[in-house]
Amino acid sequence: MAEVLFYHLTDSPLDTVLPEMLERSLARGWRVVVRGPVAAELNRLDAHLWTYRDDSFLPHGRAGGDHDAAQPVLLTDRAEVPNGAKVLMLVDGARVDPGEVGGFDRVCLIFNGHEEPALIAAREDWKAVTGAGLTGVYWAQDGGRWIEKARAER
Fold it and tell me: What is the C-alpha to C-alpha distance for residues 57 and 73, in angstroms, rounded to an integer?
């Protein structure tokens, strides 16, 4: 059963953290779907992932193309997972649906710790995840490192 990992951003923005998380996932051979609720923000992230660093290449695509199934990382605003990803990363206010967690090996909810609505939504999602009997792990940034702050085992 998948763990739901909550990543509380306080030191670094999503534009820094997401590429690092995607690189680690790809290095492990995992396919990833990145889901966000706003198409324009996903388009911005798509452009950023092509240019975030001069010395790297992060293969990815934006959902809705002819090659969605072949993408190792797919950015989408829909619940479908045409690339067969076993890792779901939720960004920019996308919410966890405890009912879909079982279809993944890992679900990561990445939220901005400087935005009160994001904090409130993350707390609600934590309650939904743990209330559904799923494992939740809460990570917070501390001096540029991730520190596990809470764990609720199923």
Answer: 12
